[in-house]
């Protein structure tokens, strides 16, 4: 008989499940857990960690079952024709399991080693990693014949893990249902009748706004809005990507203090205490958030208890991942679970690293960068040409809150996803600044988006920038429609409106996108426009301002004292026509560091008056610019004016007050 029997089919499927469940639960999960344990212990209670590990373990176990059923079905169907083909399918599956385990081992060994090996010894680290990796594979090869026995023994742990996980989740559900926790007290109903709306745009650089002198007319509606507002010419973000910047806005703390260094970290209870929304809420304000980027969302950074109302992420209707995020995240948060961040981070580490170091060399024309996969390929039929998270959807969600709100003052935070990549405005705006049909799809933009490029490729980057500018134009148009609604409904008579961004976007100096180790002006120079109730005239303010100053200023606007924990300073005096002592500005990218460990790597910038100093903590590379004379940062003065560079470097230690360890950066 040259076909699988029913017993063989069952045994083959079970064998596939054993191999994959052992790989996912006994290799991937522990490796990722050990890599993050420092951050976990800093951010969460042991109960939360246990619940999340249980949930994630069950998810991975389910994934192993799906793989087993799929591969088992393929093997069975092929086995109907030839038992040899069925057995070949099983052999290929075993090879894939080995390669996946190899990939996981290499990725996490490499990541973990980078956190323990001293700086300046990267060559030794790489040699050590490769050596351990080879020894691991040699050991595995010597155990190849015994592998089925080893897997069967290891698999005995899986049912025990599943039972313990299920028990923990039942106990947690029971605890949540029996005890909901205390309701934070409201000090008193606010005597202020003033409302506040804060609008932040994702990846909007002041460098590309006509409001700030950009030659393309990208922001006509913002220009019109600013005719009756204060325009800040020197507003800076405290980081160059989303989560750290947003947390600085909410907490009025620098990333070195709130310790959200990357998009996978969350605010600790200590860092979240007395933030902007918590303070407003305790003073009788209704606080609401309509946030279109998951990396900025209160569900993601765990500031959601401080909002009276949190809107779901306004994804396009056919976006499956968005539906899942909106459906399951609120339920998970009731369990005090962080699994959505953990799972997203784990998947990002494995998939992105695999793409970065391996797959892009094997696939000649990959359809999408790994980190873009969630944004387009999961259920979004028009992902290649359609804007992801249209701004009108975000403003519609904000309008729903305004239409349904009750009496009393409110604070509404609106975070618009555009002009974040992909740069795909609707047809009405597409080709406004570039008529040629170049880089007008997600796939074509992917070839250069988010890359460090050779300067000879600058013409290609300039073309892509035109598409970014068209997306700004589209976003600006939707902002203009929202302002008209505010005017029509009478809100501008008793509402202060703050308009800014989380960070900028860069198309020069060999870098495109945001994040990374550069802190050039396009990345951190962002807009700030403030319109007070009934304001008629316009005024431009040239003092240096930063994101941590927003919360104290908003509180001052409604007459609430600034909590002592906030590091920013109110600029209300400037709005009243007075002066404010010049503040030093700090911006940084520290995304490769743990929350609890000393900061070993990253880049920190200081702006003091007209001078800007940037230092790479790992390499010691310094940059110093006179922004008044050299706004495009073409000529560094770090060597020429070493005394000034040294003085500004000292500010990082004396005023930023964080532990860099081993004197790094001095």
UniProtKB/TrEMBL annotation:
Organism of derivation: Geomonas oryzisoli
Transmembrane intervals: 16-35, 55-81, 88-111, 123-142, 154-180
Pfam families: Sulfatase (PF00884)
Residue runs in coiled coils: none
Keyword Membrane: yes
Domain Sulfatase N-terminal: 195-560
InterPro entries for the chain: GAG_Ulvan_Degrading_Sulfatases (IPR052701), Sulfatase_N (IPR000917)
CDD domains hit by this protein: sulfatase_like
Keyword flag Lipoprotein: no
Protein name: Sulfatase-like hydrolase/transferase
Keywords: Membrane, Transmembrane, Transmembrane helix
